[in-house]
Amino acid sequence: MAAELPTLRVCALYPTLMNIYADRGNLLMLERRCEWRGIGFELTGAGIGQALDPDAADLYYMGGGQDRDQMLCATDLYEHKRLALGAAAERGALVLGVCGGYQLLGHSYELGNQTLPGVGLLDANTVRSDGPRLIGNVAIEVDLPGVGTRTLAGFENHGGRTHLGPDAEPLGRVLKGHGNNGRDGREGVRCGNVIGTYLHGPLLPKNAWFADWLITTALELSEPLAQLDDTLEQLAHADACKAAGL
Q1: Which CATH superfamily is domain 8-244 in?
Q2: Which of 102, 125, 193, 211 is deepest in the core (most CB within 10 A)?
Q3: Alpha-carbon distance 22 to 116, whole Å?
Q4: Per-residue pLDDT tens for 70-112?
Q5: pTM to 2 decimals?
Q6: Which parts of the chain sit beneath pLDDT 50?
């Protein structure tokens, strides 16, 4: 008898407010790559004022948003979802934050005389700079368990400069682009099963292999995923790398 295929449970935090630069496409990418393999997919959302169940998902996802929307979400996230999200990460659920979501996974985000609280899952702080925004195509080199050294490519557009603390490791090394702050050559952060990155565009359609890594990791699979015909996905990845200048 064939083994029953698992179901990937994904919870999107603030799916309507934190969805700039087509970040919702990341969720669609996960759904499609599960569907094509016969893996179940369940998507739930947790918005302003809604409780977060720390046991209800294998992957918690938060995209980026405009400053006003990010401020609204920061307060709600800290006051109503911080403990639950921490409990989810503690039990081994994967947490992925992109741009604004990444900033709110750290300790704080300072915007002038206002400080947005973060949930503190990442040892990082972000400060809004008076300098130019860090904008453009970007490519980074990452080293992840099970896949080794690979390239992630995307698009970045952020006014904040993120600085990692002594307990933080970057997600990757900047090959082209600005990264966390345009100075230290590091991009994103990864602390165990909690990941933050500035790569938009959206991220996963340009990096199908990373979508598969997220699925495998979130489901704690011991066997590789079934191979797909990724001709178009590989072309998209190559184009994103070329756009970044690789």
Answers
A1: Class I glutamine amidotransferase (GATase) domain (3.40.50.880)
A2: 102
A3: 24
A4: 888 999 999 999 999 999 999 999 999 999 999 999 999 998 8
A5: 0.95
A6: 1
Domain residue limits, the chain: 8-244
Give me the DSSP letters along 80-105. IIHHHHHHHHHTT-EEEEETHHHHHH
Q: Active site residue: 178, 200, 237, 241, which one?
A: 200
Residue the block writes with tokens 């006003």: 68
In the chain, the N- to C-terminal Cα span, in Å, equals 47
| Residue 200 annotated among the catalytic residues of the structure | yes
The stretches of 21-162 forming alpha helices (DSSP H) are: 24-35, 67-76, 82-90, 100-105
From the list 152, 155, 62, the residue with the least C-alpha distance to 100 is 62
- Which tokens in the block code for residue 55? 């046991």
11 is catalytic: no
